[in-house]
Write a structure and sequence with these properties.
The strands form three sheets. Strands 1, 2, 3, 4, 5, 6, 14, 15 and 16 form a nine-stranded mixed beta sheet that branches. Strands 10-11-12-13 form a four-stranded parallel beta sheet. It is of the alpha/beta class. About 6% of the residues have low confidence. It is globular and about 65 Å long. It folds into two domains: 125 residues, Urease, subunit C, domain 1; 280 residues, TIM Barrel (Alpha-Beta Barrel). Bound molecules: zinc ion (ZN).
Amino acid sequence: MIIRRLTWRGLLVGGALAASASASPMNAQAGDTTTIVVRAGTIIDGTGTTRRNTDVVVRGGRIVALRPARGRADIDLGNRVLVPGLIDTHVHLGWYITEKNRLHQRGDGDDESIAAINATGNAQRMLQAGFTTVQSVGGSEDKAVRDAIARGVISGPRVLTSLGSLNERSGTPDSIRMAVRKFKEQGADVIKIFASKSIRDGGVQSMTQEQIDAACGEAKAQGLRTIVHAHAASAGKASVRAGCSQVVHGVFADDEALLMMAKAGTYFEPQCELISRNYLDHKEWFRGIGSYNDEGFDAMEKALVLRRALVQRYRAVKGLKVVYGTDAVAGAHGQNARDLVCRVRENGESAVDVITSATSLSAESMGLGAEIGRVAAGYQADLVAFDGDPRTDAESFMRVAFVMKGGVVHRQPPSFTGPVRRYP
Ligand SMILES: [Zn+2]
């Protein structure tokens, strides 16, 4: 990779200053007029189109043009494969493993500052892994991290957050509607709803249709999207009936539930393996907390098998919009691309299709389809390049060499010896 001409310092400061003008997840870059030409041997643009030897012209944090490579490039990525910044629609930003190698729990001795530093670390790891936008579903602690990133105080992906969640204990339909409005007041980007138990607890439907109706109905009235944790088929169907935006997990989703989602345009977010593997390979981090016990871990083993079977069924449903969400919890941040590898290797999906799922389609699911998720003129300059070609070697998704977010470089190869290094 060759990088020349531009002054990195000016570029970085310009980006951070422009970002401070707005705490929105879009980091408006109004004052920044630096032009940067990024050249790549191969671009997979996020909509299924592949281009060869192309220059991406970036100005003011946005892509202003794509053109055949010519003349000098500021950043020459050589034969690396360039894609839009990746999007994970389902992470848990605030979950982390403590110094004692245990899942952080309230009352374990870690105060809020330690928790905030760990959440910051999680954010940075995800950005370094090529994820320029994540949706955290999510706790109140997400707000400070989201806003600090948007202001350019710390490095991290754009964060959208639910700031909390609703479940069967959230009360009557009226109190649920009030809680939705309260989340909106506090600045939530999305509403998270637990309509079923976890896999460890059997995954059965936990909220009534009336409760789900209230949550998704009020959110819609307030202009907010809804993400519903739903393992049981009945919970998924109830969510579609209630007009919820996105159904998550669906380990027990039957064909009828999948068809209902496709028909209603409900986004579906199944996981591949990162979430299960993270628990099963590190039982000691979790064992003894709640239902993290032998029975719970057995249920997760079984869920891995069910997830495999689910793939063939959801892929057969025409028009079903399958977005990318890993459910990255403590220990999994920074490995968010693991499910891209899994979806190619284990599910037999094409690398180009899973890139579309984790870019333009996931952007659309978050209402940001005109802003992020494509390498195209007018879009945010969120660009990620891999060492290797994921179309021939899926593991390339884990080898991120270059990350630009909103025109600001956050990662470059260690071999690069240019004048100024990465953000901050
Ligand atoms: Zn989750």
